[in-house]
Each structure stands twice: as C-alpha cells, then as structure tokens.
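[step 3/7] inverse_fold.run input=structure_tokens len=410
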C-alpha cells in the first residue's frame, strides 16, 4: 500500500514548477492542477508587488467638494502672505475639478483655465503649486522651461514634461490625466525682441509653440523611457484635456511695461521714486503686457488666469522662518534635537537674518544659506558633546561671524 502511495505521489506534480510531490512536499489541489508551497508563496509575493504599484484613482468628486476656503486654509499652513494669490488659486483649483466632474453632463463645454504665476523670485510660487497638488492628492510634476527645446534641437522634448507626470503617477495614465504640471522660468523663453531674426528661435518662440501642443486638448505620444523619441518605442498615449498647467516666472522688467501702459513714470518732477526691486505695478499686468514682454499671443491666450505674487518684506520673511508647518527654524530644531541640542533664537538675531535676506533680494530662497552659515560650526561640534545641550543664537555672534556657544544642561 505504501509503495502504491509513493508511486501516486511521484505522478502528482506542481503545475507551476513541474516538481513532483516527493520533491516539494504537500500540494494544494485546484480545479485543473496543483501548486506547491514554494510557488504559492512566490505568486503571493507577485500580487503584493502589484498591489503596491496600483495607485488609487483620483476622486474628482472628493476634490470638487473642497471649497475655495478649505483650499486657502491649507495654503495658509505653508505659504506666508500672498493672500490675493491664494484666493485666486483656490477658486481656480475648485473650478477646474468641478469642471471635470460636471462637464459631461453640461450642454455647454467649459474650457480649461491654466494659470500664470508671476512675481519676484523666492516668494512662494513653486511652494504654492506643490502644496495644492499634495492637498488634493493628484500627481504633480515640475519642469524648467529653459531645458525645453523645439523639436529637432538638442535638449528636452515637451513630451518629456508629460512623462514626468506619468512617472510620478506610477504610470497610472488615468490618474496622470488629472494631474498638475508646474513649468518654471517661463519668462526666460520669452522672445525679448520683436524684430526679425535670420536664425531660427530655439529657446523662445519655438518653444512656446511646442508647449502649445501639450497645453491644448490633445492626445500626446510619450516615449516611455524618456529622452528622444525612437521609431521602435511603443508610445504612451496621454490626453491633456484635464491636466492643469501652471506656469511661473519672475518677469523682471514687466513692471516697466505696465507703467508705460498706465502712464506712470519712475522719475521726474512730481512723480514717485521707486526702488528697482519693487514689483507693486505688476499686480495690474494684463495679457497685452505679457505679449510685449515676449510671450506669443497664442500662448498667453491659453493661460487666462494671471496670478501676481507680492515681494516679501522683513516681517513676512520672519514669519516664513517661524510659522509654517515646514518652517526652516523648526526644521533645524528637529535635526539638532536628535543630538540632544536645543536651539534658542533671540528675536534680534532673527530680525538681522531677515534684513540680510531682504538686502540680497533673493526671497525665501536666501534664508537657508544664511542660517546654514550661522549653524555650521554648531552642527559640526554638537555630535561630539555628550548629554543634553543648549545653544542661544545671538545677533552679535552673527554680525561678528563668531560661533554660538554650546552650553551643557545638567
């Protein structure tokens, strides 16, 4: 009887690996075959990986339920100031996804409204776009307009901007088609001269024309591996109808164009003298001003929502350092607490840093480099000092370039 059972076991084989029961032990019987423990675990692992890669679909209804006030409240946690910009963006985001939710039921097609962020560097343009995408939980990609070239030139194809979005959506096409793309430095590709040129414009009008292809409602062919397109590649097809494009740029000199149009002057008897770093007049910018700056009419015509950003004064720079969820002073305190160091900033030290940032006219981007230079010696020495410690950052130490003292706490 035992010999008969052994013979039967040799006949039973795993339908996946082909090994006999005598080699693998117990087999699980299915409708048309068997599977061994090893293969079952392998299959389970494969499905776990598939589950990890699968992203939940974008819930347009849930996004559309977030009111402009709710969106602005979230922006307030991360972006200091820029109240007008926050209001405009919150309404634009709400309307965009409401349009997607109801457009199929509406007899009147509602066109997509892309946005243009403009204003001084380092005032929160990119941060606002990132915060919005994270809050409504849609794929987000950042591209630099200066890296894009017209088709046929060495550089990055405009389709690669879409590829970044697809990659960030984990190749979930339906999710990517509801994402947000932020294209920075758009002012750098403006055609700054209206005169004729005997050479082809690679970095200006040509790129704007190339970007038009993806801004409009189209089905783009994206090379899955990035880089240049190759005939042997199987392209990814992506609809851009519902992808929201946000363009950003400093547009240095735009204020002068606005002043000429509105009849204002910088100098002369009876006229206000303004700082060259003041951006107040760009709030009144109109599409025609951007056309004079160098954006082609077809391009600015596809970006109907203009969002001006204010310059940062010292008070706002201080608030940026202290208040947001991701404030830089909180960031350094968290890092240094891992080495049992408590950092205390005196008010006049923070004010001094804010004044230096304002003088450099770099916006919030200049904060980190100054704080890093202040704390570099403290961060170097702290890990070698045992026990709890405290460091008080004083204005006079920063002014004289002295390393702040580290005090042991008993």
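[step 3/7] decode complete -> sequence:
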């Amino acid at each position: 009887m035992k010999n008969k059972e052994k013979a039967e076991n040799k006949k039973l084989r795993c339908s996946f690996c082909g090994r006999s029961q005598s080699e693998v032990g117990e087999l699980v019987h299915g409708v048309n075959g068997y599977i061994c423990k090893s293969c079952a675990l392998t299959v389970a692992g494969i499905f776990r990986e598939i589950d990890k890669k699968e992203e939940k679909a974008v819930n347009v209804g849930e996004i559309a339920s977030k009111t402009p006030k709710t969106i602005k409240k979230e922006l307030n946690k991360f972006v200091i100031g820029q109240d007008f910009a926050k209001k405009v963006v919150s309404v634009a985001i709400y309307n965009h996804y409401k349009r997607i939710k109801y457009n199929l039921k509406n007899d009147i097609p509602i066109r997509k409204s892309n946005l243009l962020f403009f204003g001084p560097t380092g005032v929160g343009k990119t941060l606002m776009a990132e915060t919005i995408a994270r809050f409504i939980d849609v794929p987000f990609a950042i591209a630099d307009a200066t890296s894009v070239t017209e088709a046929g030139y060495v550089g990055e194809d405009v389709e690669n901007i879409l590829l970044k979005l697809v990659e960030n959506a984990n190749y979930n096409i339906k999710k990517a088609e509801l994402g947000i793309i932020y294209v920075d430095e758009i002012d750098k590709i403006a055609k700054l001269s209206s005169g004729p040129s005997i050479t082809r414009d690679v970095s200006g009008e040509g790129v704007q024309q190339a970007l038009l292809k993806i801004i409009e409602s189209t089905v783009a062919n994206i090379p899955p591996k990035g880089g240049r397109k190759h005939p042997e590649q199987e392209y990814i097809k992506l609809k851009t109808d519902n992808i929201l494009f946000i363009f950003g740029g400093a547009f240095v000199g735009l204020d002068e164009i606005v002043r000429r149009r509105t009849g204002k002057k910088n100098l002369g008897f009876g006229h206000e003298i303004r700082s060259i770093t003041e951006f107040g007049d760009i709030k009144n910018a109109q599409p025609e001003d951007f056309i004079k700056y160098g954006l082609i009419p077809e391009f600015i015509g596809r970006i109907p929502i203009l969002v001006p950003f204010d310059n940062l004064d010292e008070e706002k720079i201080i608030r940026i350092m202290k208040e947001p969820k991701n404030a830089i002073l909180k960031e350094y305190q968290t890092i240094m607490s891992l080495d049992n160091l408590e950092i205390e900033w005196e008010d006049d030290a923070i004010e001094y840093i804010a004044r230096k940032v304002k003088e450099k006219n770099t916006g919030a981007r200049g904060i980190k480099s100054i704080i890093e230079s202040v704390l570099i010696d403290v961060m170097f020495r702290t890990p070698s000092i045992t026990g709890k410690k405290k460091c008080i950052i004083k204005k006079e130490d920063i002014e004289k370039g002295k390393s702040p003292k580290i005090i042991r706490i008993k």
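[step 4/7] annotate
The two ends are 80 Å apart (CA to CA).
The chain has a mean pLDDT of 82.
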